[in-house]
Target: Glycosyltransferase family 2 protein
Amino acid sequence: MSNPLVTIGMVTYNSERYIEDAITSVLSSSYTNFELIVCDDCSTDTTIDKVKSFKDPRIKLYTNKINLKEYPNRNKIITLADGEYFIFIDGDDMIYPHGLDFMVRMLHAFPTCAMALMAKRSTRFYYPIVVTPHQFYVSHFLGESFLRTAFTSILFRTSVLKEVRGLSEDYPNGDDFIRLKIANSHNSLVINDNITWWRQTPGQASSNLSKHLEFYFLRQRMYHYFLNDTSCPLSEDEKMDAFFNIRRVEWQIIIGKIKRFKFTDALKLIKGLNLPIHTITCYFKSRKIKDPFSAYSPVKPLRVSFADNPFSNIYSK
Model:
């Protein structure tokens, strides 16, 4: 394999407690050809001083003059990136020393794939596996989604990130948006999990996001956006089933609010989601399910050839 440059993007905001661990984990990588772009969003603590204490020339520090917020800040890093590949390791996360080398070698070996996503062990998949746009969308809307991983668990081709103009700033879950945006027209590579370490702490934005009604409105609007997109890889029947599942989840959330006597929240959701009352019947019906990988099992798992795995001693490329 050649030695392509990798851009590691690190957004920070008052990250003094964990920033040294995050940077040290990156600098400890066995893969050394990278640039670490740190973009600080007007921290008021000692984050910037701690970043400056590292003297490694691969670290590039940018400080915003105004607070951009999360996704504009991420997009700023994407525009600055010079690497062939791109990954976000935020100021409170860490990557294992072998992680970058593993991810880069995997994605580099599968040039038709636009991103490499980590996934937990599956009895039907012997990773890595190549997932087509249709398989990705059917899995997400009608099966078991490939989005159930932290944003730090994805390596992108930088050219594709720039091609789709980075992350959407219109949705609070823009990391899901970018994955669905890329997956609707590019193959994805699914690889082994536990290469990066996403720190979950009380009070962080991502842990509180789903508690807000606005999150539900925008998430459901995002799903409608992709299902109505002309490039959506699903068939018309599959789209109808996907819309049914979306309505079913919406009513589950609303009825859950009612059961907890949160009637005001329930009414806001009905109005905000523009839900016709007759669609409440979705709540009482089973989820529409379709498995694009039904042909695979522990007896016959989905896998690529050993000769296509870049870590194999019979790697053929």
User: Anything to note?
Assistant: Residues 113 and 188 are 5 Å apart (CA to CA).
